[in-house]
Design a protein that fits this description.
alpha/beta, Rossmann fold, elongated, six-stranded mixed beta sheet, Laminin, single chain
Amino acid sequence: VMQCSAPLDVLFLLDGSYSIGKGSFERSKHFAGKLCDALDIHPDRVRVGMIQFSSTPHLEFPLDSYLTKQEVKEKIRSIVFRGGRTETARALKYILRKGFPGGRNSSVPEVLIIISDGKSQGSTMMPAMQVKERHIMVFAVGIKFPRWEELHVLASEPTEQHVLFAGDAEDAANGLYSTLTASVCSTTAPGCKVESHPCELRTLETVKELAGNHVCWKGSKQPNVVHASLCPFYRWKRVVLKHPSRCFRTVCPDPCDSQPCQNGGTCVPEGLEKYHCLCPVGYGGDIHCAPKLSLECSVDLLFLMDSSAGVTLEGFLRYKAFLKRFLQAVMGQDSPSSVGVAQYDDDVRIPIEVGQHKDAFSLMKSIDALNFGGGGTLTGRALQYIAQHGFRSTPALEDVQEDLPRVVVLLTDSKSQDPVAEGAKYARDQDLFLIGVGSSFLRAELTEVTGNPKQTIVYSDPQDLFNRIPELQRRICSVDKPEGCQAQSLDLAFAVDASGGVGVDNFLQLRDFVRSSFLHFSINRDVTQIALVVYGSKAHTVFALDTHTSNSALLQAIDQVPFFGDSASAGSALLHIYGDVMTVQKGARPGVNKAVVVLTNGGGMEDAAGPAQQLRDNGILVFVVVVGEAQRDMLLRVAGSPNYLVHISSFEDLQHYQDLIIERICEEAKSPVNLCKPNPCMNQGVCILGPGSYRCECHGWEGPHCETS
């Protein structure tokens, strides 16, 4: 963004002597390329040339050879280290005699950039002075551990603005641009200004240091007499010396200074004027992290917050922040839901009645005013109290409608000091829909409160709480909705890893997961059909799509699932499903959404990306559920999208992700269907789409699907 754009001839004088060495020479080349980024290289603006010097100067390329930035940088990269003595004075005399090779004969400003360690053989003072008398602007750039005194002799005045250090290439490029801007370049970038600040120039010197004394023997004028004495012992030591200086750098306003990202978003600058926001979960409705969720369901919603000593003040403040972020994310101006907040410890209070606030701003102010209690944790008593008093319908609270579902969200981080079962059952008997949100160690107690593990939301650490906002929104709006895809047509195949990598015990957990998943679907010919495939190195169909027509039949059949215990090949399983399961012959229905769910520990996925893409190309969704550690990049290639990949840390946690997986399947299964994908025509028949229908064009076969010879 910051580059000098005036007519300018720039000549690099690159030290290629043995004191630099090949490694530092390569760093010098890299640095020269970085400096080119601060120059607008163009035939009519900045031109660049380069001379490498050691015992003798050598012209690498003149200023009129390469006229684009890319060409110049490529040529610099190809320059070869020559080696020799450091004859800086000889190189300067070459420039005094020859001028800038390929330059514009002083009709434009001339800039000489010397990149060296400043350890010349011989004095550079006279030729350096003569170069500067010709009105050539000289920058001296130190490389490795330079001799700064010589570089100050070489550089133009004021030396603070013309002596740079190649160790920090970005900073030095800024320094070059800043100095050029003050003299030859047109203007600084909009809104930018040159500022000075204290800095240090470092070098490495060898110094003589007294190490101690040792006994030595000295002769005497007297014959045959020797005297013992103490003699000093010295050693040479390399030390880093720091030279205080001032640096001049261009400082530009950060586009993030105005804090454009809302709702806890993080601003990431892109150049001088642009930026983008990294938004927290539940936000991202626009570039500034506006809410992107919405609570579109109509419910009366009451948050029951634990404010006992067990939560601590810090935890209570975190719940307030979570509550505000959730409501900001999901509550729009025209949200059909009414919200209230209660808090409990030894006692229960309802500081914000359901429906009391008509706008989000006044609701947020009331949440800010909530105070920490600090008493005991009587969750059971609080639930009973809320069931009796939490949703009182009064004329003042006319928004609380008797016929709307009533939802209570319990927020707690401490174990209850009284039994919760009786109070929770009483609340559920009053038709309250209970959702529990708390730390993972409270999972059992929260499930006892809600009466359903699907209505329990746990988080692993305080920050993870805020990641649960979308899940809470789905749970609130799942009240009174049928579970799974009960009223939705779907052909679904489970592919279960039965390899030795999974192990028998974990395989049985995968089997139980599939068994409980059946309960989310209405199994019959008109709604959902399910097939089951298990695989090791080869795949085996336990039952096809049209084998069983009821939930009870599926539950009995799954007990016969075999465990193989050999190596895994998910690719073979997906190819098997494509060619032998999702076919009209095996019960697949044209015009019905189709999905495959792969359950695995991540082993044997190397050959699965191609077959998975083949399924997707034929209109079949592929969901990948992986338990344990696995390579995410490879899994994404199989799933095709992060939306179709669920990564679970342990087999014990698998059951807690069932609702999420089923919801995703059912949501995606609503997409429009191509009647010819996968091809319903058998025996190489060609499927031809019509308006709302299809037909099979058969060759040597007959029947609606070319099934009869």
